[in-house]
Records
---
Amino acid sequence: MLDHTTKDKDRVPPGQRLTEGFPVLHYGEVPYYRDMSKWDFRVFGLVEEELTISYKDFMVLPRQAFKNDIHCVTTWSKLDNVWEGVAVSTVMEKVRRKPEARYVMLHAEGGWTTNLPLEDFLAETSFFGIKHNGELLTPEHGYPVRMVVPHLYFWKSAKWLRGVELMAHDKPGFWERNGYHMYGDPWREERYDFD
């Protein structure tokens, strides 16, 4: 049985329950990489020049430690996650975005996508996760890189991330086209949008 203080309970959004595990939820097949020389990461769309980073170059980018709580739309929350990853600013300082860029579409393996306002993508708390609680991400949790946007429901933290597309206008990604909310604030319970 979980024993959390009142302070911890203040960190759990409405409709959520605490877990000490790290549930695995996804749609489709889990990608297993055998030849990392074929893996790359792209920043494209409304940028002056597209950026492509190889796996080798991505893995030597400066990393930071991050600590956060995560909240899944399926009602579980996990507190005090410790991550190692690359700050969004570290990658974005390598590109010049066009002034009309206001949104991003995260592109993951298998055609999976999710949308974010640019402001949320660039937040200091958002990063490209490589390790969770001291261990490399497993394939089921997004190896080799997943987006982490802890202030939104966890589906916005795309697993198996391969690219970021900068856009002028918001548009729905995979889950949003299939009934999930366009934004996903756990404190407002923005889970689904069937309008």
---
Amino acid sequence: MNGLIDRSIETGRLTLVPLRASHAEEMAAVLSDPDLYVFIGGEPPTETALRARYERLAAGSPDPGVAWGNWVIRLKDEGCLTGTVQATVSGDTAEIAWVVGTPWQRRGIAREAASAMKDRLLTLGVRTVIAHIHPGHTASAAVAGGIGLAPTDRWQDGEVRWEGLPVRKPF
């Protein structure tokens, strides 16, 4: 499965590029706004911390039954990175997440990237997609709903579990 997860994904406006440590410098700037962490906690990472994290993620899951997919989002027209999407795949279930830097929000980038990632996961045999979203994070809830996920009555660490088998939607 990792071979297909490690490939780029193209949409009309975006290229999802497999995450590498070399993305840390640009991504540290993308993720530098403290407002990005209001719902997810934490604070903007330093380039050094991000590089170390990206090295671990790019190496893949140490569990042979789990595959990690991590991509940076490149906006083709502007030629810059705008955020990340990620998936943790176990069996036929994927837990996904996304973050888009503040300057690029409200442009449909997160939904387009999450949808493209979800479509790739479906080709790999994923049957259930899950996201955990803070109940006050209306933007992330809109992304989840936009790719076919629905909130459940299940909670984890103060976040609502969204779940579904999204329908493919071309861009």
---
Amino acid sequence: MVSTKWAMGAIVGAAMFAAVPASATVTFADYQPIDTSNNIGWQNNGSGGSGSGGSIYTIAPGASTPGSVQIKFSFLLPGLDVVSGVTANFTLLATATNAPALTDGSFFYQPTIAGNFSIISTSAITVAGHTYASGSNLLSATFTDSGIFGGVGSTSGELDSTGDGSTITYTSDFLNFAPTVNRDFALSLASIASKLRSNNANTALGSFSGNSSGNFSSDPAPLPIFAVPEAATWGMFIGGFGLIGASLRRRREYSLA
């Protein structure tokens, strides 16, 4: 069982991370819901909310099971800001196993959530003269040690991955994340009809559904793929320049002979 001191520390830490974004990070992308219908849900893994873990996942309008939902996605970096408000398919699935919700009586923190998400284009996108086909990977990630944070009895909260110990691996057809050191994301959860609650200190949050929006950040900002050639490409350029130079030298020596 989690000690009260540790639980309080985790809750306070989560509150600090949720309230004060890391100053060095750059928000490089975000998404907004297309409408106000439920697009995300949390399912307690026990009957009647008695489970000590659960799953959080995207849901299509009118559905209750995991699936894909359409969103409006935007890049916020120079050179990629033409990708603004594009329709994309967002799919998220993550779980917390044997992880009761922590509380100090005012706030809940549901810890150890790990999983993945993907945001996939639904139409072709042209950036800097290059056309990305429909179905391109706008942004995908795997993550660990994330959590849901919100007030007890609240109709809003947040799924975030900004705390110590959280790990995120981003991939994208549009961005190069090799230069980045710290990465985070925060999904705002709104219109939670069932409110944030748990049965007791040994259970996870009770099941709920709501409407989400989100933003994605890193330190430093990722680079657009087209902005800087990859190392292998630089090698080809340098090798090609060397061959051209050698050829010119041979021609000059031949003409002077």
---
Amino acid sequence: MIALNRAVAHGYAYGPGVGLVLLDAVRAGGGLDGYPLAAAVEADLVARRGDRRRAAALFREAAAMVDSTAERRALLECSAELAP
């Protein structure tokens, strides 16, 4: 979790590309596989980098992983805002 938060912070401080590099390093070990927040973080960073289509797909992926209806709805709304 600390490394995921670091990727988010660096993504805001130094740009989404830096955050994505750190996120890739965190995910390399497989410890965040199936973790919806990791997919949502990636979606946000990808959206901020400008790839709206990929970000929308990642938000949908994150939504499919959550049990909470409210979380799913919020993630799907993020996806819909980015969809062309």
